[in-house]
Amino acid sequence: MLAAIFVVTCGLVIMPSCSNSDNAVKPDTSALDNWQAGRTVTAEAVKAFGGIDKCFAAEPIPDGVWARMQGKTYKENPYIGRDDLRHIRALHWDYDNQMHVGEMIVNVQIADRVAAILRQLFDAKYPIQRMLLPDVYDADDETQMRDNNSSCFCYRAIAGTTKLSKHARGLAVDINTLYNPYYKDRTDGTRFIQPATAEAYCDRSWDFPYKITHDDLCFRLFTDAGFEWGGDWTSCKDFQHFELIEE
Ligand SMILES: [Zn+2]
Q: DSSP letter string over 28-48?
């Protein structure tokens, strides 16, 4: 009841102040204010938040994000620490033209490059379905790949060694992982596929959403920035995978 908040003073009714702009519905910017990766946002919300430029950044890992990573993507180790990593904020479009909030942890060495690539992919409306930290999936790679998540950093040593994979150092980025699987043909004629649900997408001869090819922008931007594509490997194929070429 609006009338209940009118103040009556000396016979005058004082109306609550009201301008025309207050009548417009204010865009919901909460997904951006709190950087809630996975939520969709509207162009109006991005504008009200401060614009697209404000939505792309590579910065030291915020305390809340660092806390979420502990025991999941980050484990205490002598090789890589918080200062070696950066938190990237990005927006991305999915195949249905919805704009999403995304985030990624990467090595400081590639942070500016990856943020710039994600911005160019966004500007070109290159579809990326999900860009969540793997911590959402308890750092389980198979689960995040089945969900078509795109990510970079996840600490793990290669089994039986102290050698770190490129993901463990935040130097490899996986994009649209369900539709761009990893596979290796075994000598017994069987094929090992990750994620296991991606068998249909190992066949690259047909068209499907999110497919990375030599012709697309994602391939071009990463390879121009000094990364190699796992889709070009011969002993196995890793179509989702772009890793920094190191000297
Ligand atoms: Zn990878």
A: --HHHHTT-TT-EE-HHHHHH
Ligand 1 centre from 238 Cα, in Å? 7
Instruction: Give the tens place of pLDDT for each residue, 48-87.
Output: 999 999 999 999 999 999 999 999 999 999 889 999 999 9
Q: From the centroid of its chain, how far is CA 52?
A: 16
Report whether 135 contacts 41 (CB < 8 A): no
Distance of CA 161 to the CA centre of its chain: 29
164 DSSP assignment? B
How many A from CA of 174 to the centre of ligand 1? 5
| pLDDT range class, residue 23, cuts 50, 70, 90 | low
* 42: Cα separation from own chain's centroid: 18
DSSP one-letter code for 63: H
Structure tokens at 124: 């070109």
The CA distance from 174 to 222, in Å, is: 11
d(CA 229, CA 246): 14
Identify the CA nearest to 73 among candidates 103, 105, 101: 105
> How far away, in angstroms, is 171 Cα from ligand 1 center?
9
Rounded-to-integer distance, Cα 119 and Cα 51, Å = 13
Under DSSP, the state recorded for 129 is -
Q: Based on the number of CB atoms within 10 Å of its own CB, is 87 exposed (0-12), middle (13-18) or buried (19 or more)?
A: buried
- Domain chopping of the chain, boundaries: 34-244
